[in-house]
Amino acid sequence: MKMQTLREVQELAARTGHVFIATADPRGQPHVAAAGRLALTPERHILVTEWFCPVTLSNLQSNPRLSVVVWDAATDSGYQLTGELEAVKETGTIDGYAPNVEGRRNMPQVERQLLLHVNKVLEFKRSPHSDIEE
């Protein structure tokens, strides 16, 4: 995988303002979550930050493999990154007062950053494409 490709992934995520994360539990039950930020580290890892739901975190604790999709629907261009979770870091918490989520059950209370090791970068689009890494 080329560093330039990872930079393109980061730039596309910044332009679209979102990424999708696919995880699975130990039985293989899939789960997809949306996140807002993706950044590249000098070590060719990626950081994804958001208020992840409990299912995403539970899946990653028991099965660290995941896919991250960055896709621009307007241009039908994007990437799928496959890899593994390296670490989870807490980056923020709700201070106990959130009127827009009061009374809602199971709302994330902690913003987390996922450090991901990328194994492959594949093309992702709606139109015909290859799933072979270039």
Ordered list of secondary-structure elements with their pairings:
Blueprint: H1 3-16, E1 19-24, E2 30-35, E3 37-40, E4 45-50, H2 54-62, E5 65-72, E6 77-93, E7 110-123
Antiparallel strand pairs: 1-2, 1-5, 3-4, 4-7, 5-6, 6-7
Search tags:
Pnp Oxidase, Chain A; single chain; 134 residues; 2 helices
Mean pLDDT comes to 86
Provide the structure class: alpha+beta
**Assigned CATH superfamily:** Electron Transport, Fmn-binding Protein, Chain A
Number of helices: 2
Strand order of the largest sheet: 2-1-5-6-7-4-3
Give the tally of structural domains: 1
> What characterizes the major β-sheet?
7 strands, antiparallel
| Terminal residue distance | 8 Å
CATH class: Mainly Beta
> Rg from C-alpha positions?
15 Å
Q: In percent terms, what proportion of residues is strand? A: over 45%
- Per DSSP E runs of 2 or more residues, the count of β-strands stands at 7
Shape: globular
Share of helical residues: 10-25%
CATH topology (fold) name: Pnp Oxidase, Chain A
Please identify, by name, the CATH architecture.
Roll
Q: What is the string of SSEs from the N terminus onward?
A: HEEEEHEEE
- Runs in which pLDDT lies below 50 for 5 or more consecutive residues are none
